[in-house]
Amino acid sequence: MVDFNRIIDFFENLNIPENMLNRGQLVLNEFLNPIKILFEQRSVPSEPWTDEQIEFLLQTLSNMDTDKDKNAARVGEREARIASKLQLKTSAGFCHGVGRSGYLTAPQPKAPGGSIMYVLSNYLARNILKNFGLPNIKDAIVVPLCTGMSLSLTLGALRSNQSEKNLNFKRTVLVPQIDHKSLLKSIDLMGFKSKIIGGKIFGDAVRIPIEDIAANLDDECFAVISVTSFFPPREHDDIKEISKFAQEHNLIHIVINAYGVQNPEWMKIIRSAIDAGRVDAIIQSTDKNFLTPVGGAVIASPIKENIKKISQTYAGRASATPIVNFLISMLSLGITGYQKLIEEQQQNREILERKLREVAGNVNERVLDIFNPVAVALSLENLKEEQLFALGGALYNLRVTGPRVYNPKEKAFGTCCSNYITPYIVMNAAIGATEKDIVFAVERFEKAYRQIVQQ
Question: How far is residue 324 from each of residues 20, 109, 119, 120, measured CA to CA in Å?
Fold first, then answer.
């Protein structure tokens, strides 16, 4: 077997000067050293890796899986057989996936390399959250599920806690109003009932007071949801008080932190809630926070046993692709790269608000007074109903994606309350967006606004 750290030993008797061999070994060792450190420390690297280093790691690990064994006699019904070599690329070579039926983090006998890859990814998931705001979590897991499906999995896993106390009849989840269909569907999927506590308007902002949540508690409730990141006018929940409430009434408490990892203020709120009361799990999207393709989430908990239960509740073997995508992001960004992205996000959020305030002054509108460290909402009170409808299409035609236009005469869904009367547009300065994105979007918004008004 070749020891790449001493590869020059194989060429000592050839006509290659020793100083040249040593120079080559030095370069090779520097290429391989980050992989050695990753195996030893199992944490997100301080500095980003090169694509070549990431590819080398993935190819090395995937070559440990049994589908790469040319001498194997593969007679099972699931042997990672593929129709095209293109599928090796899309899965990074991990065709066997991860886990075993009924236990997501269990080592897979046919995938030693995939098992190592998954263990490393989960270590890195815990490490990145600890580094960026949640030092008081105990464990984390990457799952090949969106945020909503991750909520279903988590509710199903932690719901079993109730059976220990013979409370199987409890099926209701307290939900401070979250106008997002995927989260509501995720509760329905498990056969549970959502008890929605409506939002109230405080100035421009929509909030759900803890008193209203407490007033809706009854004997059917076994869990409560809280949320950090959401679209204006909805502000984050009072998660610290909800955690105290959950602890007092023995309720499972799950925090939906969909795109909250990118903001230190939201993470601080969760950290305080963990210290103050009960938080069973925190769910965050991999694509919204870590710049991966859609399809993954990180579930974290200050209770290690909860992550084990969630892992054991997953039905079947899982696709490795969303996990690989998360691992690639962590290695390609590193701690310094992710910190830079967060700083850029904060700067872009300031630019977005400043630019929108300038436009608001020009068209006699106003920036709504709502706390949200990612998004900004601007009133559209001078537009008629048909103009509100036209604005979204005009922006799309101007190649601006992402804004949300709210027309109070059309529907209330999205505001998280029943009587929000101010029409508005929401624009985001989320992680990964560039200053160019922000500037162009605001300029094109003003252009579209003026065009609609002049028609």
Answer: 37, 19, 11, 10
What range defines the domain where residue 415 resides?
338-454
Which residue blocks in 8-142 are alpha helix, DSSP H?
18-41, 51-62, 86-90, 112-131
Percent of the chain with pLDDT over 90: 67
Indicate which CATH number applies to the domain containing 450: 3.90.1150.10
| Residue of 43, 91, 108, 186 marked catalytic | 108
Q: How many CB atoms lie within 10 A of CB 274?
A: 24
| Alpha-carbon distance values, 108 to 39, 57, 85, 306, 318 (Å) | 19, 19, 22, 21, 11
Report how many domains make up the chain. Answer: 1
Write out pLDDT tens, residues 58-113: 998 988 887 766 777 675 667 567 677 888 788 888 877 888 876 888 888 778 88
With respect to residue 129, please indicate whether it lies within any of the assigned structural domains.
no
Torsion of CA 439, 441, 446, 452, to 10 degrees: 170
Strand partners, 109: none
| Stated pTM of the model | 0.93
Considering the domain boundaries, does residue 238 fall inside one? no
Token pair recorded at residue 62: 């995937």
159, 207, 271, 288: the catalytic one is 288
pLDDT, mean of residues 252-269 = 96
Does residue 258 carry a catalytic annotation?
yes
Q: Domain for residue 357, yes or no?
A: yes
288 a catalytic residue: yes
pLDDT tens-place string over residues 395-425: 988 998 889 999 998 877 888 998 999 999 9
Confirm whether 180 is a catalytic residue: yes
Q: Which of 101, 339, 347, 451 is catalytic?
A: 101
Looking at per-residue pLDDT, the higher value among 337 and 98 belongs to 337
10 Å Cβ neighbour count for 384?
12
Q: Is 78 a catalytic residue?
A: yes
- 377 falls within a domain: yes
pLDDT mean across residues, the chain: 90
User: Where residue 336 falls among pLDDT bands split at 50, 70, 90?
Assistant: very high
317 counts as catalytic: yes
Of 207, 317, 349, 355, catalytic: 317
Neighbours of 221 (CB within 10 A): 18
Which among 126, 180, 309, 349 is annotated as catalytic? Answer: 180
Higher pLDDT, 161 or 55: 55
DSSP state of 237: P
Alpha helices (H) in 103-190, listed in sequence order: 112-131, 147-163, 181-189
Catalytic residue among 100, 110, 159, 240: 100
Catalytic residue among 258, 281, 375, 448: 258
Task: Verify whether residue 73 is a known catalytic residue.
Answer: no
